[in-house]
Amino acid sequence: MSMLSLLVGASLAQTPAEPTVASATAPPATAPPATAASGEFLIRGLPPGPPPPPETVEQTAREIGLQLRCLQCQNESIADSNSNMAKDSIALVRRLVAAGYSEDQIKDHFVESYGEGILLLPSPTGLNLVVYVGPAIGAGLALGLVLSTVVQWRKEEDDVPLPSDVGLAPKDRYEQRLLAELED
């Protein structure tokens, strides 16, 4: 079952009477204001901080959007994707930034809503640590295997010695010159 069908099924299961968090697919015009007086916040139960200067909102929203995965495109950020879901998600990020939520609060909100798969760079903890440490361990093991094989080859004696080494044939001119050069 796809992530989108799970999200649609979950949103249909909510009743209108219960309070909801502004979803990533809601149009920007319907977002409730984040005011402490009314007790309604864009992120349920989390009041926003002081709003940033208006000229920094777009850049901050883009920086956060570059860290969040588009649910339809999978390997593209919501800031770079052209899908409607990504456009709605980046609009939500923009509203949250304008309301005064921090980058960590916004990313935590998306992780809580969609799971850690929404992050393009998951945190290096728990099972995700394998993604960060696994390649280094694999490369180390491969290097160790190659080195041990080379050392073993160098220690092995030749199975068939050269006839000149055992005295069955005289050394030819080329072999004599080579041995003379090696001794110098």
Question: Can you describe what's shown?
Answer:
The chain is mainly α and 184 residues long. The chain has 2 domains: 3-123, Cytochrome C biogenesis protein (Helicase, Ruva Protein, domain 3, Orthogonal Bundle), CATH 1.10.8.640; 127-183, no CATH class. 48% of the residues lie in helices and 0% in strands. The protein contains 6 helices and no strands. It has helices spanning 3-13, 54-65, 84-99, 103-114, 129-155, 173-183.
> Which CATH class of the largest domain?
Mainly Alpha
What is the succession of H and E elements?
HHHHHH
Shape: rod-shaped
Strand content: under 5%
Count, helices: 6
CATH superfamily of the largest domain: Cytochrome C biogenesis protein
Number of domains: 2
Low-confidence spans? 1-38
Terminal residue distance? 74 Å
Provide the structure class.
Answer: mainly alpha
Q: What is the C-alpha radius of gyration, as a whole number of Å?
A: 32 Å
Mean pLDDT: 76
